[in-house]
Design goal:
The structure holds two protein chains of two kinds. In chain A, helix 3 crosses helix 8. A two-stranded antiparallel ribbon of chain A has the order 1-2. In chain A, strands 3-4 form a two-stranded antiparallel ribbon. Chain A is mainly α. Helices cover 50% and strands 9% of the residues of chain A. The termini of chain A are far apart. Chain A is elongated, with a radius of gyration of 32 Å. In chain B, the strands form five sheets. In chain B, strands 8, 9, 10, 12 and 14 form a five-stranded antiparallel beta sheet that branches. In chain B, helix 6 crosses helix 8. The interface between A and B is medium-sized, with 31 and 36 residues.
């Protein structure tokens, strides 16, 4: 081609050349055609690939299976309470979210110099007594699901499972430290670690 | 093409010669110079040029490149001067902090940029493209200089392209592409520094890619894009991809100042000092220095990025000939045809009014931005609990400090008859962009208050006091 090709139409004096697209551009088109053909054969003709619905169902099944294995046991939490990284992470979560009701030392009493101690709504986490069960898994349930009618929020929705486990690990290091000036015991005594 | 081709124009008339590799090919209005008739690439070898606009560009580009490289490192009050932290939704700008709740302000940024581009091109053509666009700054200011260093001037580069594989060619090309790659790595890491604190980027670079997979992928992809763009794609980005050039025909008017050729003075072009000839000696210097491969004498074309190379090239030639400069110059269509320039015209006034409206709306909007968030949400579960005759409503106040400084907030209740409040943590100190949830309990005797009664909490920061409504529910 040495001559520019003029298309045979004219509108209000405007004519159009038929110049060739850059080759790289044509190649993007050819490759898209090849890809779509392979895609169509793979997913829609031979059905060797999963359909969107099958993918969705597979992912849901996977999530359900994962949820089943994610039951947090006493052993898991006990192991975590001995992991200093988890305890440190739990302490950070505690400082941000829990001190409001349980005080920074876990005693659930706020001490303001020159004023009588203020009883916070939380329970004393440093004694042996628990209102909603003292087993590690019970603590985890209380943290994640909360206690209706109290300020104990269902933290699972807010923090996610990992942070909840960390904070339980931290709380397990607090128990039986019996901080001075802590709140009166409430609930059942729990003997065990 | 959005130009004003004239029938019988010597530059556009006649059969074109666009065979692949034809050395006699000249730019015309009917085709893209950077694409041959068979669709292959016609590589443009831009000739060197000196002049006043080049000097201005060099100074400006040095400043712009320095800004690009330095900004991620600047801290203001311990916070980045500019950082868009997308995963955490924290945005830092010149000592101010923004979070996701402020995202609506991005509307003003985007429309402001769009409006500025429109106004600037209506007034002064594509000055953005020629002087400020990163594509131009890095291509002309960095990559083409590297190419010049390794492969010599335009004639040498052309020869090297045509040559077969020789040790010299391999050496020069390797040097060029290795430098390109190193530069692209620097540019892409700096770019990442706008989205991730740059000191963390440096730390991540020392670690394994598996520790920061997304950052690594980001850098990998951007290095590849930058390298490909500046090594090969080049002016095609401006011509084929960027929509801005296509807009120019609707943004320009008779008075838009642009790079152009003075046809009245230059034509008919030809040999110097011949009676009846114009000032253009048809030396093709303006074509040789054009980075997008056009002939400016064909009029305004969408390929033109307004780099002013042709102005400097022509001025140099005119100086040598002892002719006045400005055969190719910045002027408006009216200026080229009638020798007049007009700045104040209805659209300029309209743009000014629109600008004032935009600034006013933005000024009002920015005052609506709050220093902190205080959202009261009811604790999940039941709406209230009944213990004997006592009704308890449990809430959580979600406090977010949006100020750049650490701030102490306090929460108190406005006394309301019959309501007993428990606010376990009435005061909390939050770092910049930190948040905390504070529980609040409200108790009242059954029957004492109607369900739906609105009571108030007050959240106080160091210099703001905000009242938040809380609805009490009961049986």
């Amino acid at each position: 081609m040495t001559q520019d090709v003029l298309r045979g139409h004219e509108f209000d004096g405007i004519t159009e050349f038929d110049n060739r697209l850059p080759n790289w551009w044509l190649w993007t088109f050819y490759l898209a055609c090849i890809f779509s053909f392979v895609y169509w054969i793979h997913y829609h003709v031979l059905r060797t690939g999963p359909s969107s619905l099958q993918q969705y169902q597979a992912e849901m099944a996977e999530a359900e299976a994962a949820a089943l294995t994610q039951v947090v046991t006493d052993e898991d939490l006990t192991a975590k309470s001995k992991d200093s990284a988890a305890v440190a992470a739990g302490k950070a979560v505690y400082t941000t979210n829990c001190v409001a009701c349980h005080a920074d030392n876990g005693g659930a009493v706020m001490v303001v110099p020159g004023q009588p101690p203020i009883q916070l709504p939380g329970v004393n986490l440093t004694d042996k007594f628990w209102l909603h069960g003292g087993k590690p898994a019970d603590l985890y349930k209380t943290v994640t699901q909360g206690v209706q009618g109290t300020a104990m929020v269902a933290w699972g929705m807010v923090l996610g499972a990992n942070k909840c486990q960390d904070v339980v690990a931290y709380i397990m290091t607090l128990r039986n430290t019996n901080v001075p000036g802590g709140k009166e015991p409430q609930g059942q005594e729990y003997v065990g670690k | 093409m959005s130009s004003t081709p004239q029938a019988g124009d010597p530059a556009t008339a006649g059969p074109s010669s666009r065979g692949p590799g034809r050395s006699d090919r000249r730019p015309d209005l009917d085709s893209l110079y950077c694409i041959n008739a068979d669709g292959s690439r016609n590589k443009i070898h831009t000739a060197d040029v000196r002049g006043r606009y080049q000097r201005r560009k060099w100074v400006l580009w040095a400043i712009l490149i320095a800004i690009y490289l330095v900004v991620p490192w600047i801290l203001i009050g311990g916070k980045p001067a500019f950082l868009i932290d997308i995963p955490r939704r924290h945005f830092y700008l010149l000592g101010n902090t923004f979070n996701a709740q402020d995202f609506w302000l991005a509307f003003f940024v985007v429309t402001g940029i769009g409006f500025s581009l429109i106004v600037v091109s209506a007034m002064w053509g594509r000055v953005w493209c020629g002087y400020g666009c990163p594509q131009t700054v890095f291509l002309e200011g960095v990559y083409r200089r590297v190419e010049r260093f390794f492969e010599g001037n335009a004639a040498k580069r052309k020869k090297l392209d045509a040559a077969g594989v020789t040790p010299e060619k391999v050496l020069r090309r390797t040097g060029k592409y290795a430098t390109y790659l190193a530069l692209s790595v620097v540019l892409s890491h700096t770019f990442l520094g706008y989205f991730m604190p740059v000191r963390e980027v440096v730390k991540a670079m020392a670690g394994s890619p598996s520790e920061h997979p997304s950052a690594f992928l980001f850098v990998l992809v951007f290095t590849a894009i930058i390298f490909f763009n500046f090594a090969w794609f080049r002016e095609q980005l401006c011509i084929v991809i960027c929509p801005y050039g296509r807009l120019q025909s609707v943004l320009y008017d008779q008075d838009t100042v642009n790079v152009g050729y003075d046809k009245n003075r230059g034509e008919p072009r030809g040999k110097h000092n011949v009676e009846g000839r114009g000032d253009c000696i048809d030396c093709h210097r303006c074509v040789a220095v054009c980075p997008t491969g056009i002939d400016i004498r064909n009029g305004t074309q969408l390929e033109c990025v307004g780099c002013a190379n042709c102005i400097d090239a022509c001025d140099e030639v005119m100086d040598k000939l002892g002719q006045p400069r400005g055969l190719v110059r910045y002027d408006s269509l009216r200026g080229f045809e009638q020798g007049q320039r007009r700045f104040w015209r209805p659209r300029v006034l309209l743009y000014a009014v629109l600008l004032l409206i935009g600034i006013a709306v933005f000024a009002v909007a920015i005052t609506k931005r709050t220093a902190f968030e205080a959202n009261v949400v009811r604790v999940q579960g039941s709406a209230y609990t009944l213990d004997g005759e006592t009704v308890t409503n449990a809430f959580v106040i979600h406090l977010v400090n949006k100020l750049p400084a650490t701030t102490t907030f306090s929460v108190e209740a406005i006394a309301s008859a019959g309501v007993e409040w428990t606010i376990p943590l009435p005061s909390v100190t939050l770092e910049s962009l930190a948040d905390q949830r504070l529980p609040v309990l409200a108790k009242f005797q059954r029957g004492r208050l109607k369900s739906g009664t609105i009571v108030q909490l007050v959240v106080t920061s160091e210099d703001e006091r905000r009242t938040v409504d809380v609805k009490l529910l009961g049986p």
